[in-house]
Amino acid sequence: MRKPKASAKEPPLRIVRTVSDLRAVVQGWRGAGEGVALVPTMGALHEGHLTLVRRARERVRRVVVSLFVNPTQFAPSEDFTAYPRDEAGDAAKLAEAGVDLLFAPSVATMYPPGDATAVSVARLSAGLCGPWRPGHFQGVATVVTKLLAQCLPDVAAFGEKDYQQLQVIKRLARDLHLPVEILGVATVREPSGLALSSRNAYLSVDERKIAARVYQVIGGMAARLAKAPAEVAKASAAGRAALLAAGFATVEYLEVCDAKTLQPLTVVDRPARVLVAARLGKTRLIDNVPVVPAT
Ligand code: PAF
User: Would you call 49 a catalytic residue per the annotation?
Assistant: First the structure.
């Protein structure tokens, strides 16, 4: 009998679901002297995630992507059940991107029965999204700590789109002495300026046009503050009014913060970030940009 022809498509992506299988593969690479990167995701992958994979690949030989929709970072009222899930579609994208391994654990693997440990990062988790998403950053910090301990990568890549999350993860890695470099990767945007997000799938065609205003508004604020650093209050009030006029139902926050500590600023006298969360229909959008001082 003839052997079936090898598919002309990408080689199938290797998928593991247990920590011991993940460790066995990673140890094999380490034994061969190869560096390892981890790109944690909740799936519903888009170009933003694939950019994280490419940046990670620039740093090391092997890239692991984890796919886990983490229940502990969703409040009971949030979209855990509705969150888009398509493991087969995600695996095809990752195979094409040349990812070496997909780690797709179950909830019971990540949170074994009797699990009693949580990681929380004080102060950085308190402001911005913190009050609007109680428990969210503790859920993120806990699952990311577990993923880093399971994989023990040299580098782990996260998008700047979730800027507060990125600062929380940098801090937990530092405070827990985890031997990993946390790599922040610039936000990938649609031509309209809308930041790519798995949750953009919830937007209607009309809402997508309105959503693009977020980047225009915060970009405009950052440009104004670069020239007039003391105008934080005026720029914030104008930005909030512009978002509400564009059709956003609520602006949860629109703040100018210290880029590292995330403490709100009234004058931009150090590296700063404009950060926003606003609701459009049933979608919650977040975004942020740096304030680049005028030279
Ligand atoms: O940014 C995300 O997709 C998630 O918060 C993360 C970092 C994968 C943790 O579940």
Answer: yes
